[in-house]
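hey so i finally got around to running both of the ones u sent me last week. sorry it took forever, my laptop kept dying halfway thru and i had to restart like 3 times lol. anyway pasting them below in the order u listed, first the sequence line then the structure token line for each. didnt double check formatting much so if smth looks off just lmk and ill redo it

first one:
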Amino acid sequence: MSLLNSDLILWEGRKRSWKLGDRTLIMGILNVTPDSFFDGGRYMDLDIAVKKAVEMEEDGADIIDIGGESTRPGADTVLLEEELARVIPVVKELSKAKLKAPISVDTTKAEVARQAVEEGAEIINDVSAFGFDPLMAEVAAHYKTPVVLMHMRGRPENMQYNTHYNDIFLEMYGYFLDRINYAVETGVKRESIAIDPGIGFGKDFHDNLALIKGISRFGTLGRPVVLGVSRKSFIGHVLGLSEKERIEGTAAAVAVGAWEGSHIMRVHDVKEMKRVAAMVDAIKSA
């Protein structure tokens, strides 16, 4: 049994909290971007985006994660005004719809996070782990939001230039200690922090596989782990398939990640991965 799921871990927010460890949560991805690697351009229309979010909740999503800037390898930075125009109307409409699933905002910009939380978002998902915008930690602390701090080398436009690690687990463990301590020193409660190993963010094919297999090594940090493997290129590397054909590979990676103790799976295919995670949870608890 994984270290991560040996005990329940509290992930605390202002509006609600979660005791994680006995059931794997599903975070549904809603990219309101023209250039995301899998679903870019599909949900740029406000009505279509809202309909998709409602559908994901009906399919079992525990969290809806909305992003207005692609973080695929090589992606360019989006201007603040453009990201706000993509994200905030969707958050507003979903708040009006009164979804049961909390809204997470996937952004590295403090002003996007601030406005999204003001409009009803409950979680901040920052792929830079508060590294790109010095005000992000202050926003999270002020609004008492749960946060996801992800590991990434560099920025999306250059993160795949250097993927060599002498010991990836040791380096990432130190990184997470540093970012957690920084967040706490800035006023974010330790109980509000989750971590994400950043599969595909500044790692090569072999490291991505090793991280999924060895995710329980981060258990001694005592924080929930979010795992994003959905349709990513390492699956294509193994199976020789395009993004559209990677659902079975995603299911396998989700199953191993959940078995090894990841608490939250960030996915495109909510209905299918909800079933995969539920089956893994049932076997683990037998």
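and the second one:
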Amino acid sequence: MVDVDTAPPFSKLPEPLVGALRELARTKRLLVALDFDGTLAPEVDDPEKARALPESRAAVLRLLAMPNTRVALVSGRALRSLEQVADLPDTTLLVGSHGIEIRLDSPDVQLTLDTAEIRQIGVLNEVLGEVADSVDQVWLEPKPAGFALHTRLATEHNSRVAHLVARSEANAEVADLTIRHGKHVLEFSVRSTTKGEALEHLRQYTSADAVFYAGDDVTDEDAFAALTPDDVGLKSGDGATLANFRVPGPTQVARTLALLADLREGDVHEQ
């Protein structure tokens, strides 16, 4: 435990962020919502090999054990994949596929596709599968309400071609399609949800007085946009952002979570 008025010297975090964490730690009911890839876990070429940094995992487990504190993972991954790579207790709230799949305090996953959506997914599978098969180092990941076209291992030229062709062909075949750009990935979904909508749902479900949200990708900007003045948003890495704080990457996110846990341990039990 640390003195709530003094940041530990090893934290190496910007003082304005430390000050915001001090205030946030005093919140009665706190929701800590976190993206996974690029935030808790460094990015890797094989998504199924991604794992949270040990320091991040340790801090998340500490926060999960605290009263009046809920922890949620909000990811673009399919929920089953998120469960496997995160490997956290069932008390962790999980949001997969940008909010299409949600697992709260019951093992049931909230997702139902109607007949028309199932048919659209079949069409997408054909169209995007052809694109992935025709471009080197491009592969297709099935998701509950669509697909992710991965181009991390492809050349810049092949990635650009795959994105252009996939977007054009998919839009021509499927009406009202939601397409999201991420880091080296283009996601296609027959459902239109965002991480911002998911975060609002989590806020209401947990009756949180304030929210800490950390993310690294373009899709996390919807969540940052949903934050209020009492909340704290943390951008991991480069790129334009609506978050009010930024750190270089997952190592500093881990330090931030550890400090939040330290500060909250010093405050939450007295409320």
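quick thing i noticed on the 2nd:
The two ends are 17 Å apart (CA to CA).
anyway thats it, ttyl
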